[in-house]
Amino acid sequence: MNEDEQAGASAATEQGPRERHRVKGERLLEKVKELVHQGNVRRIIIKNEDDKTLVELPLTVGVVGAILAPVWAAIGAIAALVTNCSIEVEREQP
Questions:
Q1: What is the pTM of this model?
Q2: Percent of the chain, pLDDT > 90?
């Protein structure tokens, strides 16, 4: 983990375990892509510095490639508007 990224506390919810990452806006898209490629991610929630939800991305098994292109564009637009944000990751139950 580098200096512009900070892992928050993990918590388990009814849906699955959650973790929180803080990133700078310019690293937002890169971090989301990294999380999606890890595989067992069920939902990604991007929040601003005031902890308000900007976008919630439900990810299902088999979502790949061209289907995610509009999502990457939306996340890129959000990254251009925010300086710092947090990413909540809901993982699938083990």
A1: 0.75
A2: 36
